[in-house]
Amino acid sequence: MEVIRTVSELKQRVAAQRAQGKTIGLVPTMGALHAGHISLMEQARKDNDIVVVSVFVNPTQFNNPEDLRTYPRTEEADCVKMKAANVDIAFIPSVEEVYPEPDTRTFDLGLVAEVMEGPMRPGHFNGVAQIVSKLFYMVEPDRSYFGEKDFQQIAVIRRMVEIEGFNIEIIDCPIKREDDGLAMSSRNVRLTPQQRAIAPNIARTLNASLDYALGHNLAETKQYVIDTINAFPQMEVEYYEIVNAATMQPISNWEDAPVAVGCITVYCGEVRLIDNIKYTK
Q: Which domains does the chain have, with CATH numbers?
């Protein structure tokens, strides 16, 4: 595995591989890698000749300076995991390398970015579009891989690809979970032992809501999830929305979408956790 830290060297290495007719798969990450990230790399390895993984904590997508400051950074451990996953190129740049000058671009991301995370984290999705588009211009991959835990983010990235006219296939991969059901996240390391023991109740409640929904309307199901999770100590639901999986728009009745997705954000202490579940007719 080659570790590259400059954009010019990255472009040079990738161009040399592409000139040989090789396909390129890109896995954008913010580091603090876990099994969820590794599953994306494994899929990229199956689908492509060359796998590029970026490790970059992107400042423009953090609307909370404290969240940016405390985001885990574990480069040495990340490199060990990437090597074990047979990654070809690890792109680990500095902030100055990625943003030699401020990125002032704004993206018309439309309705998919105006709900849920949109109003809760102003500017977040524009920052995501900035960094992912930059990586796409740098690498020009054939395919790029994202985890379904960030379900709304995938819709935003697809919209950005449409706006920018990239010829890139966006591959969404299933959520990876701990043995107790907690969705894997780099933020999980910030949970205290007590919080870590409680946090799996997010996924348990979402799973229980599948059965609950069979005999209840959508509004009742939403309230069931919110009330159940809020009953646990140190847990507070920021939002729970059931949306059309294709448009990200909230729905009022189960019949309003062939596939509905329940997207949740929960504060467990000060740690913000997200998860989702699909309701199908």
A: 2-173 (3.40.50.620), 186-280 (3.30.1300.10)
Beta strands in the chain (DSSP E): 2-4, 24-29, 50-55, 89-91, 143-147, 169-173, 235-244, 259-268, 271-280
**All residues at 6 or more sequence positions from 132 whose CB lies less than 8 Å from its CB, including other chains:** 28, 144, 157, 160
**Quick one: pLDDT band at residue 162, thresholds 50, 70, 90?**
very high
- Enumerate the β-bridge partners of residue 10: none
End-to-end CA distance of the chain: 45
Q: Whole-model pTM?
A: 0.95
For 10-43, how does the pLDDT look when each residue is reduced to its tens digit (9 = 90+)? 999 999 999 999 999 999 999 999 999 999 999 9
For residue 187, give both structure tokens.
């933020």
- Nearest CA to 2 out of 48, 133, 14 is that of 14
CB atoms within 10 A of CB 9: 14
Which residues are tagged catalytic? 37
* Mean pLDDT to the nearest integer, 127-139: 98
Are 240 and 273 a contacting pair, CB within 8 Å? Answer: no
* Pairs from 6-14 (Cβ < 8 Å, separation ≥ 24): 6/93, 6/97, 7/93, 7/97, 7/98, 7/138, 10/52, 10/89, 10/91, 10/138, 10/139, 11/138, 13/89, 14/50, 14/52, 14/89, 14/138, 14/139, 14/140
What pLDDT does residue 64 have? 87
β-pair type (259-268, 271-280): antiparallel
What's the chain's Rg over C-alpha atoms? Answer: 19
Residue 171 has pLDDT above 80, yes or no: yes
pLDDT in tens, 62-83: 988 988 998 989 999 999 999 9
